[in-house]
Amino acid sequence: MEHALHMPLPDSPDSSAQPRARGKVHVSTKARDGASVLDGLRQAGSLKLLFPRVDRKAAPQAVLVNTAGGVTGGDRFEISGRAGVGTALTLTTQAAERAYRAQPGETGKIRTRLSVEAGGRIDWLPQETILYDGSALDRALSVDLATDARFLMVEPLVFGRTAMGETLSRARFRDRIEIRRGGVPLYLDSIRMAGDLAAHLARRHIADGAGAMVSLLYVAPEAEARLDAIRARLPETAGASLIRDGVLALRGLAPDSHLLRQWLVPLIESLAHDPLPRPWMT
Amino acid sequence: MATGARTAMRTEIDATLVLMQWLSPAYPVGAFAYSHGLEAAVEAGWVSDARGLEDWLSDVLLHGTGRNDALLIAAAYRAETRLEVDEIDTTARAFAPSKERLTEADRIGAAFGDTTGAIWATDLAGLVYPVALGRAARLEGLPQALTATLHLQAFTSNLIAAGQRLLPVGQTEGQAMLRRLSALCPQIAADTDAGDLSELASTAFLTDIASMRHETQYSRIFRT
User: Fold this and answer.
1) For chain A, first and last CA: distance in Å?
2) Neighbours of A229 (CB within 10 A)
3) Which residue positions does the secretion signal occupy (chain B) (predicted)?
4) Distance CA A158, CA A162 (A)
5) Do B212 and A239 touch (CB under 8 A)?
6) How is residue A230 annotated by DSSP?
7) Using an 8 Å Cβ cutoff, are A98 and A126 in contact?
8) Cβ-nearest to A243 among B55, B98, B199
9) Which residues of B touch A196 (CB under 8 A)?
10) Interior/surface letters A102-114, b for 16+ CB within 10 angstroms, e for the rest
11) CA torsion through residues A229, B94, B110, B19, sign
């Protein structure tokens, strides 16, 4: 990523003795002179954070880099982020995350924990996660919001390398999203699929053969005011709903990731705190 | 016949009578007013005939609300205290994929709680439908698996009736469909028997999307 500024931090001790990739990062923000600035930063193993230069008024932008190049069975990645009181933080990924073929009985795990303190905001904007045939991925995203915190989540998912004609005839995928506000469950979503995912996704009322999907959540007092404009951008295979006050959920399907981006990117631009993270534009 | 066996049989008959009453279309919960997003799926052309309706119901039962409702019934049934039931209710509400799904579970649950609470003198206030039903069955000592199984059949039957208002599906065709789909109900109830809410999950994506799109459907006869 040519515009990235790599923070000059020492790497963790070499973990190459481990047979599988391990990676762990933590980033947090605090307020200084009315702006959001980096507070804590830790990185270990095959996860790194890059911090591209952003406008002085923009929130710190943390770009996750998986130096292992993807996730396979037995890998474990942990990501944690915290927006301190009154501050904003954007998290994204440098590239699409690839879930590679896993050895039988092995599962790659990604655990993400975010917390947003009073008056704060996190935009969680990873690029696509691509499930390869034979992959076994278990993800969990856990978010704790203060009562008046804001949160934007965009999770695009791609079912196989469709451009190569790959179908997911054998894969396992688990994805759990838990959002709590003031300690109380606010939004839960869980996907569990195993076996012939292509056959399952081909069913008319599952995904009707879609190759890509997005789950989006926007928690903010102004969510309701954005609903009509969001709906106007959606194709027939997507829907948005203000499930309860200040909680807007969207799910959408597309034939492939390219067609998904055609309507998703403008939508993220309209909802994100700052201009679209640069990695998304490549 | 030993007295014990006779008592057990009597209890089972009594239990079935109560469940038949609660899950009858005549029980005033207003379920007939909700299509669970089917109306939007029909409007979009995703469901256009009896075969399509059966496919839609099968996906909803096995991969969406059916299985999740059965899990919630089991969890609420197994809960020992009202506090635990309230936590299950909070989880159920957070798991709603759309506003209309939450409305449907909330309103039917409220109506079920009002009527059942008045007649059986139980406190079921403020619970979404599957949680209220599971709790009520526990308080009345009704069998858990039978409660979940008959709920799934009643849910299916109600949505076939909704489908018959939207599509050319005849009475005999509808009942034949219900007979086939009823075969899924005991299996789903058995699979969800432990009521482990970490197993709540849905892949019935397009049924959820249809339920979201129903909110802005111009011409509609159902509330959801």
Assistant:
1) 9
2) 12
3) none
4) 8
5) yes
6) H
7) no
8) B98
9) none
10) beeeebbbbebbb
11) positive
Contact A132, A101 (CB under 8 A): yes
- Identify the helix (H) or strand (E) that includes residue A154: strand A150-159
Q: Residue A165's pLDDT is what?
A: 82
Q: Tokens for B24?
A: 């009858």
Express each pLDDT in A82-131 by its tens digit: 999 999 999 999 999 999 999 999 999 999 999 999 999 999 999 999 99
The span from the CA of B78 to the CA of B152, in Å, is: 18
Q: Which residues of A touch B106 (CB under 8 A)?
A: none
pLDDT in tens, A135-169: 999 999 999 999 999 999 999 999 998 778 888 99
Biggest CA-to-CA distance, chain A: 55
Cβ within 8 Å, pair A204-B52: yes
Tokens at B47, concatenated: 């469901």
The answer, for A245 touching chain B at a CB cutoff of 8 Å, is: no
Q: Which residues pair with A38 in a beta bridge?
A: A29
Residues 6 or more apart in contact with residue B181 via CB below 8 angstroms? B54, B57, B58, B61, B156
> How far is the CA of A203 from the CAs of A197, B6, B52, B67, B203, in angstroms?
10, 48, 11, 17, 10
Q: How many Cβ atoms from other residues are within 10 Å of residue A9's Cβ? A: 11
Select from A191, A242, A251 the Cβ nearest to the Cβ of B209: A251
Confirm if A145 and A186 have CB atoms less than 8 A apart: yes
For the record, the structure tokens of B109 come out as 């649950």
Side chain identity at A218, as an amino acid letter?
Answer: Y
Positive or negative CA dihedral for B34, B211, B173, B154? negative
Distance from CA of A149 to the nearest CA of B (A): 17
Which element (helix H / strand E) includes B82?
A: helix B82-94
Q: Angle CA(A98)–CA(A101)–CA(A106) in degrees, nearest 5? A: 110
The whole-number pLDDT of residue A15 equals 39
B50 token code pair: 């009896």
Q: Enter the DSSP assignment of B18.
A: H
Instruction: Report residue A233 as tokens.
Output: 């951008």
Q: Which two tokens stand for residue B185?
A: 């109900």
CA distance to A31, A215, A255, B210, B212, per residue, from A262 (Å): 35, 15, 11, 21, 21
Q: In this structure, which amino acid lies at residue A233?
A: R
| Residue B150 distance to chain A (closest CA, Å) | 24
Q: Is A232 on the interface with B (CB under 8 A)?
A: no
**Residue B126 pLDDT exceeds 70:** yes
The conformational region for residue B163 under phi > 0 = left, psi -120 to 50 = alpha, else beta, is alpha
Instruction: Write down the pLDDT at residue A56.
Output: 77
| Identity of the amino acid at B45 | G
Angstrom distance (rounded) from CA A65 to CA A127: 11
* ipTM of predicted assembly, 2 dp: 0.93
